[in-house]
Fold this sequence. Notes:
By secondary structure, the protein is mostly beta strands. The protein has strands spanning 15-16, 20-21, 28-30, 41-43. The protein has one domain (1-49). Helix content is 0%, strand content 20%. The strands form 2 sheets. A two-stranded antiparallel ribbon has the order 1-2. Strands 3-4 form a two-stranded antiparallel sheet. A hairpin with a 3-residue loop joins strand 1 and strand 2. The chain is globular and about 30 Å long. The N and C termini lie far apart (26 Å). Residues 5-46 form the DUF1540 domain. InterPro entries: DUF1540.
Amino acid sequence: MAKDVLCEVDSCKNWASGNKCNASSIYVTSNRGQASNSEETDCKTFEAK
């Protein structure tokens, strides 16, 4: 499991200083069925501040 998860979405309540994600778990899904690149995925862990 990744020890440090980086995130640049500072409007998320899980965003922490240094572009770190401080969520206890991360949920990522594909927004187009089978993803072939990062643009075809979504972070479902996102919660607006």
